[in-house]
């Protein structure tokens, strides 16, 4: 995992104004066909278990258990392999430079 780089933004700059917009909701940015998501990071108390309810989590897992039992796994795998062969997603910058 890469370390997150922090860049200080000059008050009143164009990026500063863009960040004001991102504070109210995510913004999609596009550069040379690549998509980026700009959104405000919400930091809590630092306690990742704050508000965690084990019984609620277990109940959610039990409710979801078996919900995909009617899905044909082989059909899904075949669909995914076909999609990869057909290149249904755009090339990334890294892929298109080769």
Which helices and strands occur, and which strands form pairs?
Blueprint: H1 14-22, E1 27-31, E2 34-38, H2 54-64, H3 73-86, H4 93-96
Antiparallel strand pairs: 1-2
End-to-end separation? 24 Å
Strand content: 5-15%
Number of helical elements: 4
- The geometry reads as flat
Order of helices and strands: HEEHHH
Rg over CA atoms, rounded to whole Å, is: 21 Å
Strand order of the largest sheet: 1-2
Kindly report the average pLDDT value. Answer: 84
The portion of residues assigned to helices is: 25-40%
Q: Got a strand count?
A: 2
Low-confidence blocks of residues: none
**Alpha-beta content class:** alpha+beta
Largest sheet: 2 strands, antiparallel
Provide an overview of this structure.
There is one protein chain. By secondary structure, this protein is of the alpha+beta class. The protein has a domain at 14-41 and 50-86. The protein is 39% helix and 10% strand. It contains four helices and two strands; from the N terminus they run H-E-E-H-H-H. Strands 1-2 form a two-stranded antiparallel sheet. The chain is flat, with a radius of gyration of 21 Å. The two termini are 24 Å apart.
Highlighted features:
single chain, 98 residues, alpha+beta, two-stranded antiparallel sheet, 4 helices, 2 strands, 10% strand, flat
């Amino acid at each position: 995992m890469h370390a997150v780089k922090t860049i200080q933004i000059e008050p009143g700059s164009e990026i500063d104004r863009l960040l004001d917009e991102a504070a109210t909701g995510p913004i999609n940015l596009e550069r040379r066909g690549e998509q980026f998501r700009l959104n405000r990071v919400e930091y809590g108390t630092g306690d990742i278990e704050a508000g965690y309810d084990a019984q609620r989590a277990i109940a959610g897992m039990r409710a979801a258990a078996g919900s995909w039992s009617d899905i044909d796994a082989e059909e899904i795998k075949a669909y995914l392999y076909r999609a990869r062969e057909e290149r249904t997603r755009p090339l990334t910058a890294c892929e298109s430079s080769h």
